[in-house]
Design goal:
CATH topology: Cytochrome p450
Distance between the termini: 44 Å
Number of domains: 1
Strand content: 5-15%
Shape: elongated
Strand order of the largest sheet: 1-4
Radius of gyration: 19 Å
Helix content: 25-40%
Structural class: alpha+beta
Order of helices and strands: HHHEEEEHHEEEEH
Largest sheet: 2 strands, antiparallel
CATH architecture: Orthogonal Bundle
CATH superfamily: Cytochrome P450
CATH class: Mainly Alpha
Amino acid sequence: MFTAGTETSTTTFDWAMTELMRNTRVMAKAQAEIREAFKGKKTIEESDIQNLKYLKLIIKVNFGVHPAVTLLPRACREECEVDGYTIPSKAKVAVNIWALRRDPEYWEEPEIFKPERFENSSVDFLGNNFEYIPFGSGRRFCPGMNFGIANIHVPLAQLLYHFDWKLPHGMNHSDLDVSEIPGVSVQRKNNLYLIATPYNPSIEG
């Protein structure tokens, strides 16, 4: 459980920072929310994260655009028919989580990183909506979900609160490479390099 909640969390965190650097509007809105909520605080605890509504939307859309695991292995419990194909009992099948979340039949502009798409939406990642199941569903639901989410929310909030971020000199936001490499978790092909500047609220104020 800890292994599953660590590697996938690291991958998700990496993609979240990548998308925030590609979408400066989203980055600015997230930092404004965090810095307003924790004005004057030196540290952010896990219990403090509950009120960061926009940050939660960012994590939610990130699970969709960049699911840590793209294929969900399962076995068919009984013979069934899908689109005219007979799937025998005990056959090994793979649910394509990546494709489900990018299906234009269910998602408008599915590849766009837009946290607002989940605002006022009942769709969640608890396995109740089969078009969006980053943690699976049913009895085989990911047991490391809560641990993994905490591993993303807390460090991401801290980095956005304590630092301002920019790309290395000479790079534009459109230059960010989003190539992937295959594996148990879908990681970036190339490392993400950013320049961090400590945030000083007294100067801004």
